[in-house]
Amino acid sequence: MSTPVIGVLALQGDVREHLIALAAADAVARPVRRPEELAEVDALVLPGGESTTISKLAVLFGLMEPLRARVRAGMPVYGTCAGLILLADKILDPRSGQETIGGIDMIVRRNAFGRQNESFEAAVDVKGVEGAPVEGVFIRAPWVESVGAAAEVLAEHDGHIVAVRQGNVLATSFHPELTGNHRMHALFVDMVRANRTP
C-alpha cells in the first residue's frame, strides 16, 4: 500500500512539530493552507495553537466549509489541544466569532487546565496505544466535559476526559508532538491506512 499523505493545517500553531512526528510515523506530511491543498491529502492534523485564531483564519482562507465537508465525508482527522476544540460539536465557553469544524459529539471547555504558567506534563494511559503511558504536554489545555453515545473516551487525567475518538476523528487535549514520542501519530497513521483499505 502506498504511504498515506497527511496534511497539517498550517494557519497557526505548532505545525513543524506535527510534520516531523508524522514523517517519523511513516506518513508523507504536508502543510495545508488552501482548499486545493486540502483536496490532495488523505487525512489532516489540526495542531495546537489558539483555537479562535485558527477558526477565524480558516474562514478567511476559505477552508472552513471544505474542512467540514471532508470531515462529514469521513476524512480521518486528528486534533491536538486547539485542534480538539475545533473538532468539538459544542464549546462550553466560546469566544466571539469562534466556530468549530465539528466531527465529535462532545462538549469542551477551553483553557480548562489553567493558564500558560500552569502548563504541565503528565503520563496518560491511552486506549489503543500499547506499551507505557503516553507523555502528554498540557499547555492552556482544554478538557472534554461530556461525550455523546457515538464518541469513545480513550483517556482521562485527574478525572477529566483528555482523549476521544469518534469514527475517523481523533482528538487529544495534550500535545504528543512536543515529546519526541510518536505513538499517538502512529495510531493516527494506522487509522488513515485502515480508512484507505478497500
How would you describe the overall organization of this protein?
By secondary structure, the chain is an alpha/beta fold. It has six helices and twelve strands. It has helices at 15-24, 35-38, 51-60, 64-72, 82-87, 183-196, and strands at 5-9, 28-32, 43-46, 77-80, 88-91, 104-109, 120-124, 134-138, 143-147, 152-157, 160-166, 169-172. It has a seven-stranded mixed beta sheet with strand order 2-1-3-4-12-11-10. The longest helix is centred in the C-terminal third of the chain and has 14 residues, at 183-196. The chain starts with a strand and ends with a helix. The model has no long low-confidence stretch (mean pLDDT 93).
SSE order and pairing:
Layout: E1 5-9, H1 15-24, E2 28-32, H2 35-38, E3 43-46, H3 51-60, H4 64-72, E4 77-80, H5 82-87, E5 88-91, E6 104-109, E7 120-124, E8 134-138, E9 143-147, E10 152-157, E11 160-166, E12 169-172, H6 183-196
Radius of gyration: 15 Å
Distance from first to last alpha carbon? 11 Å
Structural class: alpha/beta
Poorly predicted runs are none
Helix content: 25-40%
Number of strands: 12
What is the mean predicted local confidence, pLDDT?
A: 93
Strand content: 25-35%
Largest sheet: 7 strands, mixed
What's the total helix number?
Answer: 6
Any idea what the shape is?
globular
H/E topology pattern: EHEHEHHEHEEEEEEEEH
Strand arrangement across the biggest beta sheet: 2-1-3-4-12-11-10
Characteristics of this structure?
single chain; 198 residues; alpha/beta; 7-stranded mixed β-sheet; 3-stranded mixed β-sheet; 6 helices; 12 strands
